Amino acid sequence: MSSDLHQQFVRDMLTESFEGLDRYDQSILRIEQGQSDREMLNDIFRVIHSLKGTAGCLGFQRIQRVAHVGENLLDLLRSGALPPSPAIAEGLLRLSDALRLHLDSIDATGAESDADQADVIELLQALKDGKAPLKRPARVEAETAVVASASTSTADVAPPTVRDSAGSWGLSEDTAAPQPATPAPEETAVVPGSWGLFDEPVVAAPATPAVATEPIPASTTAPSSGVEGSAPAVAAALSAAGSTVRVDVDLLDRLMNLVGELVLTRNQLVQLAQSKKARSESVTEVSQRLNLITSELQEGMMKTRMQPIGTVWGKFPRIVRDIAHSLGKQVRLETFGSETELDRTIIEAIRDPLTHIVRNSIDHGIESPEKRVVAGKPPEGTLMMRAYHEGGQVNIEIVDDGGGIAVDKVRQRALERGLIKPDEAARMSERELTALIFAPGFSTAETVTDVSGRGVGMDVVRTNIEKIGGSVDVQSTRGQGTSLKIKIPLTLAIIPALVVRTAGQRFAIPQANLLELVRLDGAAARDALEHVYDAPVFRLRGHLLPLVFLRRELTLGQVPPAGTAALNIVVLQADSRQFGLVVDGVCDTEEIVVKPLSKQLKSIPVYAGATIMGDGKVALILDVYGLAQRAQVVSENRASAGTAATDDAASRRDVRQLLLFSAAGRDRLALPLDAAARLEEFLPDAIERSGTREAVQYRGRILPLVRLSRLLPGAQASPRPAADALQVIVYQQADRTVGLVVDEIRDIVEDEVDLQVGSSGPGILGSAVIQGRITDLLDVPAILRAADRAA
Amino acid sequence: MAEAAASVRQYCTFEVDSLFLGIDVLHVQEVMKSRDLAPVPLAHDAVQGLLNLRGQIVTAIDLRRRLDLPPRPENRPPMLVVARTEGAVVAFLVDAIGDVIDVAEDTFEPPPDTIRTTVRDLIVGVHKLPKRLLHVLDAEHAADLAR
Question: CB of B59 within 8 Å of any CB in chain A?
């Protein structure tokens, strides 16, 4: 029993210490840059102090010894007896590395690492005595120390390396003494060092070997299965970081309250079901209540799983510093939006890909200070990480101001490695060539460094991100830098989806893949359907869109002849390729709960899972990529050849997506599509007043309405009758959200914008020819200012 | 007692076409009337559809198709035997549910070599009951459509 307790304490210590050390590292980095305050020093002193205390209680003597020396040094800093210096900061970083080494080892094998770290202790002692920081030689020593610490910390960041090293620690332990073969003595070897708190397991361990072996599974299994040694270590490595979640107590209380209400409502429902003369109103009432509670419970539960992305980013300042030092580069890391929240499973999944991208950016992207100065840039490179929510997804950008990706080198390397054929290489656009960095087995690093360049990397990054339903996109300007944009879903469990109908069955399509819907009736449907030889296509704004009939792909029966029924085209995006999925009908968009398919159905690539609809029936979730593959919309060769022309053209011109609408008597107005968060309809009854302004309730918040017809000069009264629903563009910029009331939403176009300014008066940014017609671009900020003045 | 337990086995029995079949009762989660199943296009022939079992999505497998038997007459609504297999829970479509019966271990006999090869893996053997033969179904194999 108390062995379990011991285990529990060790686990708590690991969780706490890893968290504390992350904070510690960040503080030290700030001290290194000369920004230190008392509060910070106190905080890091506490981290080391409590680690020392806990380790001592649990019998981890090596940790205790190292931490003790560090604590003494920190105490002097804290009291002001010793001024902070870069050399001290470096020594303190080595302390955290030393502690991490032991903690990782405990996490993996249950015992401290074998390294005695006399050098760290000596260094810290010297620093404390004020000897080391004085002269040059010490500085040099510290410099080399950094390189060493950099390599260990890189190891502790990249899981494959960690696993290796964890395995090798296990092995070196094995050669040093044959302990792991007999786990019980090892347990006893650890415990006598403790302060007698856990005497019991010493006696208990040999008597109950099953319990005794349990706490140290890695050390017993790893050596016995030599090659496989890394696997248990992986499981163990996940354990400390991934097994616990911190939840706000308020949130927990709220959840508990909701559960209480849920129970009450259930009781009511049971009573209703039993009573003979239940009125339908009371049933409705209870079901509404149930509905409310469930959705609040769902929301609250999701919140417990959400974590700020800062939990991952917290480690990056240190990683960046170490990599930069080891490569002799100067890099400043800037992070934005670290409070952006993500489901914890996703946080775990992006940790490694992000680390890899950051390493690549510093190694290949940012140039050495000398080169940068020659190129007319500041010697210090900037690496920016930014996260933000957008349209139900989280975007993460990693931008460096380095040398950019050398397209020629990429082409050459891809040819050398046989990733592309020479004729292909000639045809490929710059953008496509850039994307080759994601191809398996690709690496352009001229020298394979410790940090990166082994040719396994970006393809793994992409695979991992795609596995969780995300996408990566890279853009690079030669000489100016590279920008990687990752899009990932907020959560994996519940996704917004479009429900479609075909042959009497319903299917859900994840909205992440959805671009737009096109519906054509009768004669229009017959005319719109054309064929390239035998492949059906549809002209979507001048481009041929290949059509895939869901009926045909799923063998659900004959496709009705063209023109007999309306043509419903769901425009989807798979990879970089678009296609139109023809379905019988479009039902609605819904938030669906994704459930995995059983093993009997897993092998069918067309389905991503299944879900239960509101009426309790099951609907299949379509895997857009699998569907595209089945329909051969994306085959290896066609995919690249087909998009080359359009992509290339798009990247060269200033192509923008615009939302076309009419308002205030003007037939063709436009605004950038990315400024429009959503398109909504509100009934006139819904309009309320807030002060002198009109507003509606929208998603639990107040959405102020701006009537363009009242603000644009020369406006005419809306031709629509007043009782009609209002067409509203929900405009979102920074933290401001307003609804622009327009007459009619016309279209979404992607076109080259050649703006001619100053022709149309206030509220209008200028005019451009779009789709062959003159269109005015709305200057929304100016409109909003005018609205503010009017109100 | 221990001896009796070892020599007696309990089967949940059901009928499929003219076959009298049984699954070890410990593997059976529940039996129920069939309900609306969502068909799965492109799936194995034997997959009849998906079923919402109190929020869990369960694959329904038609034992008639699985055992190479003629299709069920339209007027005969099937029953579902929900069984726990190693992989997951599966629902088997059968014609009718029988009793849970105790059979003696020693009445068991493996299937003859002349049994059709396609079902050899599915029928573990038979228990010789006084009037008829109880076919013992290997639920694990029956649910594994890859073989």
Answer: yes
